[in-house]
Design brief:
This protein has 2 domains: about 1-45 and about 160-288, 2-Layer Sandwich (Alpha-Beta Plaits), CATH 3.30.70; about 55-160, no CATH class. Helix content is about 50%, strand content about 10%. The chain starts with 12 loop residues before the first helix and ends in an 8-residue tail after the last strand. The protein is built from 12 helices and 6 strands. The radius of gyration is 20 Å and the shape is globular. Helix 2 packs across helix 11 and helix 4 (about 60-70) crosses helix 7. It has helices at about 15, 35-45, 45-55, 60-70, 80-95, 105-110, 115-130, 135-140, 145-155, 160-175, 195-225, 250-265; strands at about 25-30, 180, 185-190, 230-235, 240-245, 280. It has about 290 residues and is α+β, with helices and mostly antiparallel strands.
Length: about 290
């Protein structure tokens, strides 16, 4: 592929299916689970975000929580599944910031409300990045009044983000255009990017977290002599490598080790986790 920038390649199934593991190997990938809200919780110190992602949090997910508190919006569901509707109504009334008492209950509700949870990602991440209600209305094709309702709900539930935004703007002004990200590194924020300055900090922090995790994983791979080949250590929000089929079990342990070392190193109020390890014959496993 010459000098093609693989980091800029879109996540297209047709394209990614062309990247095949060598004979005897499997393409394996891992990512950082919900890294944006994790970083925002840590950096903003928002009380409710820390209730969801802090070390003492029970089984919880900010997208699922946010979706359960949205006003009634047309989200695709199975009209023939009454159990689905009843469970959704129950979750609306019972789901709170304390999360679920058991992992099984959490997984069941997460599966049942998969459409709602997916729908909630765009508003929540857009809100993180400084998206306006007009922008949200346009991006996900809903009426402006509903977009305003959604943004107001998220704003009121997680007020720490707005305070953090204002603090970053003050820091930027004092330093002449620079702010410090979650890894202690300076990043420059242009005037036209002031409204999404939180996004700049979160994204740069997330990338450096993944790179640091890959560093720990690489060292452990060398130490235990795991038969594997790095394909892309930083591809968008995930890392991809080829692993021998008979090494998959040890590979899973290495990924867990890398995240454990990362968290030990950070000493944060939240725990950075991976979103699971996927294994297949090509990169297609993560494309959507």
């Amino acid at each position: 592929m010459g000098k093609t920038n693989l980091l800029a390649l879109p996540k297209s199934k047709k394209l990614m299916s062309q990247f095949l593991a060598p004979k005897g190997y499997k393409a394996s990938r891992f990512d950082k689970n919900s890294v944006e809200p994790h970083c925002l919780a840590q950096l903003s110190k928002d009380t409710n975000l820390l209730r969801i992602y802090g070390k003492e949090a029970r089984h919880q997910d900010v997208y699922l929580f946010t979706a359960s508190h949205f006003p009634n919006i047309n989200v695709p569901v199975d009209d023939n599944d009454d159990t689905y509707k009843n469970d959704f109504d129950k979750v609306r009334s019972l789901y709170n910031l304390d999360g679920f008492t058991s992992l099984e209950e959490f997984k069941r509700v997460k599966t049942l409300l998969d459409s709602e949870r997916t729908f909630a990602k765009a508003p929540f991440l857009g809100w993180c990045y400084g998206l306006t209600d007009h922008g949200l209305s346009r991006d996900i094709n809903i009426p402006l009044y509903q977009a305003t309702q959604i943004m107001n709900i998220i704003d009121k539930t997680f007020p720490g983000k707005d305070r953090y935004h204002k603090w970053l703007l003050r820091e930027r002004k004092k330093s002449g255009g620079w702010v410090i990200n979650g890894r202690g590194n300076p990043i420059c924020v242009a005037n036209r990017k002031r409204k999404d300055i939180v996004n700049s900090v979160i994204q740069s922090t997330g990338v450096q977290l993944l790179n640091r995790c890959v560093y720990h994983i690489s060292n452990e791979i060398k130490r235990i002599k795991l038969d594997s080949i790095w394909s892309r250590p930083n591809y968008h929000d995930e890392a991809i490598l080829f692993v021998r089929e008979d090494e998959i079990e040890r590979y899973n342990e290495v990924i867990d080790y890398g995240f454990d070392r990362l968290n030990d190193e950070l000493g944060w109020d939240v725990i950075i986790k991976h979103g699971g390890v996927s294994v297949d014959s090509s990169w297609i496993v993560r494309c959507s």
